[in-house]
Amino acid sequence: MTAITSDMRAVIQAAHLCFAATVTPDGKPNLSPKGTIRVWDDDHLFFLDIASPKTRANLEHSPFIEVNVVEQLSRRGYRFFGRAAFHRNDDVFREATKRIYSEEGTKYPVDSVVLIEVERAEEVVSPGYLHTRTEAEMRSAWRERRATLDAEFEHHVAKEPFRPYRLTPP
Fold it and tell me: How many domains does the chain have?
């Protein structure tokens, strides 16, 4: 098992978004964003299963999961590998939902809490560091780049607004 370091915690806290990779029963990859990734303790991560029927089905078939978390401006993060377990209507479920609801100021229809026992973690570092001397320089460059990308997307959204569908509880 790999201990979750203070840097890993900081990246997860800053990002609050990960991409979770699972494998379907017929061996195909499934990648799904999870906006509620958090650190549970020194050895575990968790996210809320809000609208993840494919991820849920895949983990029920095989508990192995990889979660990638990258802090956008620093262009670095971690890959976490481990086994997932579902928690419903137990102390883990109650504590995890309480934490997320409190932090985000909203409630979601939660099927379960996915608790991941981290067996291994690896750094993810952008090749941009080949041309950037420090993390501060990387963050500064990406703040400027993000501003440009955000302005371009705002222009797109003004022309073609997104009309979200309503999620139905699982």
Answer: 2
